[in-house]
Design brief:
With about 220 residues, this protein is of the alpha+beta class. It has eight helices and six strands. It is about 45% helix and about 20% strand. It has a six-stranded antiparallel β-sheet. A hairpin with a 6-residue loop joins β4 and β5. α3 packs across α5, α4 packs across α5 and α6 crosses α8.
Length: about 220
């Protein structure tokens, strides 16, 4: 037997590549200290307990029911521990909830709360930065508005928060998206939209102040 033949026999067989899973395991989210303080267990302890109970084969509703009945957790903490477990075990992706994928974008502008709300409330002004037509289903002046989103699906809530006499924050929550790809797509879209609306909101602010607090195009009674 030649030295070359011996070398071939001694060579270790190649290992098969591990199969890739669709979702990666990730951190549960909330800190160990917070979870321990409110539920009596750390994430490692909850994961071990839920694994032992067969939670990896359960759906979201079944896991929350288990935590509520067997471990006596309040509804909110049952949901939080379930979501953390699903993320840790690769059963849930980042931004994913039981109702789909959610994302949020916000921006603070040097304008009053009423002026910022008016920029979204008036169809003509809104059309200068948001070309898509929307049908508002909920409208609370100075607080929020909601509407469905046909382009990527899901529902949108626009929230308005005062940060000072001439400073306000706008937050756009997009909920119920189909997948993580849609999350990235709409997050970029809404970030661009807030960038476009910045100047519009400031112009609207000046217009409203000049009309004694009434938005342009509306008559006082």
């Amino acid at each position: 037997m030649t030295a070359k033949t011996k070398a071939k026999k001694k060579a270790a067989p190649k290992k098969k590549a591990a199969k890739k899973t669709g979702k990666k395991n990730s951190a549960p989210g909330m800190s160990d200290a917070s979870v321990k303080a409110k539920t009596g267990k750390t994430w490692a302890e909850w994961i071990a307990a839920l694994d032992k109970a067969g939670a990896k084969a359960m759906n979201h509703k079944e896991i929350t029911a288990l935590l509520s009945k067997r471990h006596k957790l309040a509804d909110w903490w049952s949901q939080m521990v379930t979501v953390g477990y699903e993320r840790a075990k690769g059963l849930r992706e980042l931004h994913q909830t039981a109702q789909g994928f959610n994302t949020s974008v916000s921006r603070t502008l040097a304008t009053g709360l009423d002026q910022l709300f008016a920029a979204w409330d008036e169809a003509r002004t809104r059309g200068s930065f948001l070309k898509e037509a929307i049908a508002v289903t909920t409208r609370n002046p100075g607080k929020n508005m909601r509407f469905a989103w046909d382009k990527d699906g899901g529902k949108v809530e626009v929230r308005f928060t005062a940060k000072g006499p001439e400073k306000a924050q706008i937050t756009i929550d997009h909920m119920g998206l189909a997948n993580s790809a849609a999350v990235q797509r709409v997050k970029t879209f809404w970030a661009d939209t807030l960038e476009k609306m910045g100047e519009t909101a400031l112009k609207t602010s000046k217009r409203v102040r000049g009309s004694g607090g009434r938005a342009s195009g509306r008559r006082g009674k």
